[in-house]
Specification:
The structure is a single chain. By secondary structure, the chain is α/β, with parallel strands linked by helices. The chain is built from 10 helices and 7 strands. The strands form 2 sheets. It has a 5-stranded mixed β-sheet with strand order 3-2-1-4-5. It has a two-stranded antiparallel sheet with strand order 6-7. It starts with 14 loop residues before the first helix and ends in a 9-residue tail after the last helix. Among the domains are: 44-169, Nucleotidyltransferase, domain 5; 230-276. Strand 2 and strand 3 form a beta hairpin. Keywords: Coiled coil. Pfam families: DDE_Tnp_1, DUF4277. It comes from Crocosphaera watsonii WH 8501. GO terms for molecular function: DNA binding; transposase activity. This is Similar to Transposase.
Length: 285
């Protein structure tokens, strides 16, 4: 039953370990990419867009390590040790356990995985997404537009990917984006690209283009207004205001029924109440 040159002692309980060691020596990414390229060719996968995101996997068991030894290992990257199992932001809702992070690039057509990378448990998307895209483009040569969430958008990443095609969301933590959204008029957004909306069947969406230079890179920002989303948000806001009003009335009854030795004590109490309110403020009692 054994093939030529296969000895019986090759088949033992250490076989899977030896195979995994050999795969690691050859390079897991290299093997993965060879398979991916064959799949793309055989099934004619559409690669106009590629999507990058990350997730985390919690790990059970003990990972004991001396803190000073861990710091030394972090300072100089050891090739034989690819990742650190650490606590970090847990996407599978187990912040109590250590974890590793998986970065994955998929195709738009059927979500075929194109590139996989495993990282340290406390790794930040902002710190690695730009490097992941650059590495991906080195490994697989095709003209794909990279789609990613707002973790990609930062000055350092923009410098790294300035020669690539990409789409991402600009986070509202950026002052320029916040100012643009606050200052733009709804009419300005609605007046632009009416024909495009009809052609793309996007009648409930309106947008305005702005040419912006950020991080030294010239780019096009789209300010998008969704009429359905706006209506939904306003309904939620009305509901929240109603709940907050009831809450503030309850606090008012409490403060009006309480006796204070001095007006300043009442003002301190009112200040504490206002801190508990998010949307309303009691100005005077």
């Amino acid at each position: 039953m054994l093939g030529e040159r296969i000895k019986p002692d090759y088949l033992n309980d250490d076989k899977i370990g030896r195979v995994m060691d050999e795969l690691y020596k050859y390079g897991l990414n290299d093997i993965f990419i060879e398979v991916v390229l064959e799949v793309i060719k055989k099934f004619k996968i559409d690669l106009k867009y590629s999507h990058l995101d990350s997730t985390s996997f919690h790990l059970d068991g003990e990972y004991k390590r001396e803190e000073d030894k861990e710091k030394q290992e972090e300072e100089k990257i050891i090739k034989e040790r690819p990742i650190f199992i650490k606590k970090g932001y847990s996407r599978d809702h187990r912040p109590d356990l250590k974890q590793c992070v998986l970065d994955l690039i998929t195709s738009q057509d059927g979500d075929i995985p194109l590139f996989v990378r495993v990282g340290d448990g406390n790794e930040s998307d902002k710190a690695v997404f730009g490097k992941v895209l650059v590495e991906f483009k080195k490994q697989i040569k095709f003209d794909s537009i990279m789609v990613c969430d707002s973790a990609l958008y930062g000055q350092e990443n923009l410098q790294l990917i300035q020669h690539l095609k990409w789409i991402t969301r600009v986070p509202m933590t950026i002052k320029k984006a916040k100012e643009l959204v606050q200052n733009i008029e709804v009419e300005e957004v609605k007046d632009e690209d009416k024909e495009k909306r009809s052609d793309l069947n996007l009648e409930s969406y309106t947008w305005k283009e702005e040419i912006v230079t950020y991080g030294g890179i010239k780019q096009t920002w789209l300010i998008v207004l969704s009429e359905k989303r706006q209506k939904s948000d306003l309904e939620k806001l009305e509901k929240q205001l109603s709940q907050e009003e009831k809450k503030s009335q309850k606090f008012l009854k409490e403060i009006q029924s309480e006796e204070f030795e001095h007006p300043q004590a009442a003002r301190y109490k009112l200040k504490a109440i206002n801190k508990k309110l998010r949307l309303l403020e009691i100005k005077e009692v």
